[in-house]
Amino acid sequence: MIDFPRDESLMVAGLDAWHYAKQSCPPELLIEEERLQARLGVRAFRLPVDHKDPGDGIKGANLDIPALRFPGWHYCHRCGAMEQLTLFSSARRCPGRPYPGMNCSQKAERSRPFLIPVRIVAVCDRGHIEDFPFLDWIHRNKPIAADCKLRFLAGRSSSMLTGIKISCSCGEARTLAGVFDFDQQSGGALQRIKYSCRGGQPWLGRTEAPGLPCGSHLRVLQRGASNVYFPHVVSSIYLPLWAEQAERSIIESLQRPEIWDALTSGLVDGKKIDPVRCDVVARMWGLSGEDLLLVAQRKLDGIQVKPVENEEEYRSQEYSALLAPRGGPNTDLFVEIVQPGDLGAPLSEYFSKIALVKKLRETRALAGFSRVLPPDPEGAADRVQPLRLDQKIDWLPAAVVRGEGIFLELKDRAIREWLENSGSPQRASALSQNFNRRRVARGQRTRSIPATFVLLHALAHSLINQLSFDCGYGSASLRERIYCNLDDASKQMNGILIYTASGILKVRWGDWFDKANRKGCCARCRQPCKRHNGARQILFALRLAAREQIMQIWRHVTAVF
Q1: Model pTM score
Q2: Which of 97, 115, 103, 112 is nearest to 169 (CA)?
Q3: Which strands form 116-117's sheet, in the order they lie side by side?
């Protein structure tokens, strides 16, 4: 739900109502990410349309993301008259009922105020959402007449629920006191009046589930609460291994769906690009036929991506790609390796690999959403709600961000020494037990949290703080990607990728590792300097994370749980 000006509350509609939902979309909206497509079981990703005013040369003018009206219950802020609008209703003015005292019946219809949405909604743990049942709340077990009209009365203490009273034209009235009460086992205030979830999916045009209702306990939340909506975003670092050593024009051409479909629609023996067909396409687009055939065949050979089983296996592919020099200025992944030994003895003791990721592309796809609790990879799949009704829609909305980053791989020996010389394993065990105790209480599966993961996470945030000072980035524009296998200790990963999509910076990250820096000179003041030497700040952040921050993290988390 999104709050708009003039007290409008709208919910983004499902993909079935989007433009080009069941037809091909313009090439500028298409995103291809083979690994992520295989993982999510879709054919492609698409950028959401952005509004464009009509004009000369403007394509796709007046296209917007469709939305529905939710919540349905609205009231007049002047007299309190309530109306339940439909999902497709336009803004409506006060009906002007002749209430005693202040009312809008004497005003002309065009002078009456617009109705505004109520502040509360009802949701269940499985992701359904519906209007708060005001009629059932007031009448309880009494019959509801067809002509019942509600009124929203806010007293002087309207900031509290006891000060908000809902009255009906039949004479029944009740305050909203206790509507937020909820117990995981017995339910909440709505369960006491025998009202359970009906499986509402308003974004899909459903106010009730077809067939049997959901039946889960409903909890009442404010419509702007943070736990009303948790997006299930799946991200992936693009690994264009087929595009290495290829010209940019050929890479961009093969990423166009019409060219790729033309090349792959008539394969030789089902596994080879037809040279004649490739030559015709190359002439049409002004490309080298020989180079196009070579790169297209590489892409075809590597596009048979098998879906991975878990997040660790998926990230291990990225981890392997970041361990070696890769790509170039023409590719979407450009990695240069810096030998830790060239940066001095202290760094070589802790790091086995340091890579400058000069170019990277991250695709972030919206695969669904949940309510009450964030999506859990180890949890039940029915908690994540779908974005579409028609299963023939084989795409998902996504966004692409491009930026740069730093990849660090810690030595196994350094981590083992840290684990042996500190009490981290014992503290990790206590943390894991407290963490999983809360997960079990919430109906979630247990998860393992090794001390190595906490070390990598603390180090990543220490480096983010340091990079925000040295490179001019805001800390909010920096993201970390932790490479640590939580499921299988035999397939060990000890890596950190810190990257950004922001293009505004004062100092390039490469200055941390330039020649002057390697000689002990500062990239900022061009002289030996312990304060500004970028490479040694990594070691400083590592020590800070290992000796101070982790201790604080353990204390705070243990105290909370």
Answers
A1: 0.80
A2: 97
A3: 82-84, 73-75, 116-117
